[in-house]
Amino acid sequence: MKIVIVTGLSGSGKSEAMKVMEDMDFYCVDNLPPALIPKFVEVCSQSQGMIEKVALGIDIRGYQFFKDLDISLKYMEKQEYKFDILFLEADSNVLVRRYKMTRRKHPLSSEDNILPGIEKEKDMLKLLRKEANHIIDTTNMSPRELKDEVINLYNEGNGKSNLIISVMSFGFKHGIPLDADLVFDVRFMPNPYYIPELKEKTGDNLEVRDYVMNSNESQEFKEKLEDMIDFLVPNYIKEGKNHIVIAIGCTGGRHRSVTITNLLYEYLKSKGYRVLKKHRDYTLK
């Protein structure tokens, strides 16, 4: 039986993720008190195959039960129930905007001061985040993009092994991602930052992409990068690796790295691989 615990920051898209998993034939239960998880899993395991995939939504609405979560997870491990923890998060400022747009109240905040509640929630969930098998940052994601990532993670039987490739853009001035397996520096490419009409745009914009790729060096790098990936990925699969993180860096993480990350993501998708995309420093200045 496949068990996925969906958790993370309030407003980060857990409800949307649960809807996607329900569409994928997971038996979904939202806001289940952690103390009841072992009993619920036992009942499902005795369903004689009627329930094969379970998704459990756990969030801060049940924060008084979080002290029981560790006990429940350790019990499931002891009973050899296999489970994943899917953790969703987003930038604090983006979460504030989402709450203001929906006019909903954050469970740990007063109506007029949302940010302190978000920071408190982050602190409460930091240990659970460390235990997560997968982390999705929805800061710059549309609902459709979140749906695609959840499907990539949990859609079985696509014939491309269990390898998941995460492609990430970042800015060197904000630090190299600690979890990167491969790091590529694209600071040699034409920089839109110095073009006034492009400076405030990002690599998601077609004009920025065209500017970055309008050089022989950029085109040659793209070809060589794809050739290297074509060589590396099958060998990673052969060695049994199930997740690799490819980080593409420029100075600020908004223009050149975003452009190449998007192009590499599209290339890997065209090859049929399970790919996740993240722009880490997209909103930073």
Automatic annotation (TrEMBL):
The keyword Nucleotide-binding applies. Residues 164-282 form the RapZ C-terminal domain. SUPFAM superfamilies: P-loop containing nucleoside triphosphate hydrolases (SSF52540). GTP binds at residues 59-62. ATP binds at residues 8-15. Residues 1-152 form the RapZ-like N-terminal domain. NCBIfam families: PRK05416.1. This is UPF0042 nucleotide-binding protein. It comes from Acetoanaerobium pronyense.
